[in-house]
């Protein structure tokens, strides 16, 4: 179990238990196919990026009810003896097909398919959605920041305002998949091996009272990790103190690596600070900026040529502030070999077990996707691949570095229209004729 | 440890460790005072509600570094021998003063104060903020829903799109503090004793294929928990099938308690369904609605008199969609007996250890707050109360029911201007003369 990522089977909605009860009593335990997809992209997104598969697989591998959990369910009248007996032996023995982490995807495309006995596929719905939704949302937001600030160092600073511990941890992970360089969250470093960044907060300066003394104390303790926060009182004076300190340190092995600005107008401040540093010959001291950043601010600073070498991005990425949820769903597409279709007003789904075929142009740029039945063959690369069969992984986990490299290639293959950060036309993928025919047929026989 | 609420001391930002290193080597281990507050209310909030204190206290009580954690830090070069030795013996032995959970609060008011040796008070910043920020945000959102739908049953349905497991769990808790009746999240029932609700999903109907058969299967298994989801294919036909089923069940002990509508225009649909049910004499069958609800939709349905008895609220509450973060901060206010003030552009703070005094009118309605120095005495009720001294709780945890009752009284005491759901004037609380004088004095001597 990854620390900070709980695996209790009770991370589920109560109705999963009441439905399981009914399924068991009526012998409805045949194979069901559920797919996870996003109905509609937020206006502010032209594409989404898949992430979180690894946590879903770990959850499924670890799925079991301890005797304490079963006791609790029974004692509180939440499960009959029949259900308790079933849960006691329950393991995930189904199949999973999914897009690799880092894959770009669009509305209505299945990102993950679970094929398992109906009660089991039903039980895991809540947590599978909870895990996939969040990381897909964050990777999609982070990818926009990566596109907005090419070549700049990007570090996740968002733990404090992420929605709880797991959100902080998994936001660090999803951002890394999307191309971030690291995180400030120490547990994410331990749990996932993500590079850690961080030096000092304003409280460090305030506790010293004297800014220059604070700087000097810090660099003598951390001669290799010296990014000095210069905006506690006045950013220009902070920069001048860095110059003063550099003079004091002349002849020592200590090198000031950079400064950080966390408030005010970052464009103006970074130019002033750059000028002060350059005038003192401190050309190699980098400027790192943070404070309320999102992709549009990054893009503006980039466009205007602000002399900033890296960014700490916190809240707005870790909560995906402009789109803090995705219209995702996990829907029954097939039961006992029969395709199913929900037709609720505004929430109708494409029925049956599906595949997504992606076509590229001769330069490797994404040209378009086709959603088809899994049983069809179509031109292009099939994006859903088998990852679990009979509850066993078909291959070892590819690892976070592989997911990040895949994400990088995916972003590189985006055409200009999709790289644009502005809200834009949201043409959905194409849908195969066979799939349309199946939907019509189910509507007619409903 | 509450399941799903991890307590690793590495739930912190990397800079806390680098700063601790410097504090220790320069003997800066004297007492620091940090306060948690919200700088500015979101435009869509006229008040906020405190929640999450209990999780903060549990985190502080459990704070310790295991030998595995220390090994990891040392092996990866994240801590010197000096810091490792300090961390090995580290326990939270400080003081905590805080507003009770359920208390309404405003911009700039300290909600929680930690008084502890500087390195310890610094280390806990990230997780204390992470816990308090999230629950305050959710309780504040949920309170608006409670105000929008007085007397209606409100149930949290948000786990699947909450930002991770902990967010789902703690959202259920914070909403309950604010006055919700229960949650669908089973683990929140186990962890916090929150009442559980839930019956069936669309997949249950889809798996059966035949809607009426699905209804009948369900009610025979759950004769006391029979809320039937009627919108999978067509809401009016679903309601007619409920009538049909009720006729079949005549003479049995089985009673259909309610129906749920999860899509379409809930106002129109609920009136149509009510008419169908009433025409069949099923006056006691209640209508429960869900699907994309927030406080403005609740208020509109309430105003228009839609015949809905209860609401399931999911995503928009669990992510606080219109304000998915609060501009909160945890700032050093005093070190070694000396008040401190951050003056960064746009982020200046009120210095020193503070108290909030609340005045009420003769009907118990909230009249206004005064932020003063903790050393001052002022008219009104002091909202920050001692909850921990020397690392020990001053009283047993008041419990969730007490927090919920306190929240209810707080909402009852809100004047009409603050109950209004529309964005409104955000007059901050008053600030005492002594506090203003101290801020001026610190600015002059900076």
Automatic annotation (TrEMBL), chains A, B:
Q: Name one GO cellular component term.
A: cytosol
PTM annotation: Transiently phosphorylated on a His residue during the reaction cycle. Phosphorylation strongly increases the affinity for substrates and increases the rate of nicotinate D-ribonucleotide production. Dephosphorylation regenerates the low-affinity form of the enzyme, leading to product release.
Taking the record's annotation, the residue ranges forming a coiled coil are none
One Pfam family hit: NAPRTase
Domain Nicotinate/nicotinamide phosphoribosyltransferase spans what residues? Answer: 153-333
Its UniProt pathway annotation is: Cofactor biosynthesis; NAD(+) biosynthesis; nicotinate D-ribonucleotide from nicotinate: step 1/1
The entry lists its GO molecular-function terms as:
nicotinamide phosphoribosyltransferase activity; nicotinate phosphoribosyltransferase activity
> Which EC number(s) does the record attach to this protein?
6.3.4.21
Per its record, the protein catalyses: 5-phospho-alpha-D-ribose 1-diphosphate + nicotinate + ATP + H2O = nicotinate beta-D-ribonucleotide + ADP + phosphate + diphosphate
- Sequence segments annotated as region (Disordered): 338-361
Q: Which InterPro entries match?
A: Aldolase_TIM, N/Namide_PRibTrfase, NAPRTase_N, Nic_PRibTrfase-Fam, Nic_PRibTrfase_pncB, Nicotinate_pribotase-like_C
Tell me which residues make up the Nicotinate phosphoribosyltransferase N-terminal domain: 10-132
Q: Which CDD domains match?
A: NAPRTase_A (cd01570)
Highest rank taxon of the organism? Bacteria
| Single Gene Ontology BP annotation | NAD+ biosynthetic process via the salvage pathway
Provide the alphabetized UniProt keywords. Answer: Glycosyltransferase, Ligase, Phosphoprotein, Pyridine nucleotide biosynthesis, Transferase
Q: Which family does it belong to?
A: Belongs to the NAPRTase family.
Give the protein's biological function. Catalyzes the first step in the biosynthesis of NAD from nicotinic acid, the ATP-dependent synthesis of beta-nicotinate D-ribonucleotide from nicotinate and 5-phospho-D-ribose 1-phosphate.
Q: What is this protein called?
A: Nicotinate phosphoribosyltransferase
Taxonomic source organism: Acidihalobacter prosperus
